[in-house]
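Narrative of activities, Objective 1.

The group set out to show that a structural description can be obtained from nothing but a protein's sequence at a throughput compatible with the screening campaign. Below is one input-output pair from the validation batch, recorded exactly as produced.
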Amino acid sequence: MRTPPELIDRYRAEGRRVTPQRAAIFCAMHGNEAHPTAESIHALVVADMPMVSLRTVYSVLSELAEMGEILQLDLATGSARFDPHNAAHHHLVCSTCGNVFDVAVEQASLRPSGDAVDGFRIDDTEIVFRGECRDCATVSSATN
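Output recorded for this entry:
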């Protein structure tokens, strides 16, 4: 994801209005490694701008995803997650706390073999590893 000033320039170059609300959402997303939900970005933004609606946050995050600035992830955690790291990568999802982490995978590309695809054109591959993060695993082993 570009820096907030770079995003402001890109929005203006594309003829989009840059509002204080949009700029605040850019700042809340920039470098946010937590793979936040729209609700968590909203909570960050309304701390300084109480009148920003959740609908506005969803709208700006959708625009950023359409522009390729962030990734919108469906990790089956209950809410869409947003990732400012838009280069190809994969994810670890903690089944206990729901935290999401980026992970590099040595295998650059996985493709089904044989007739499994049956004419299906594959554009991308995403791997989601599920398990327990270090913090949750430590708590689990301490209680057992």
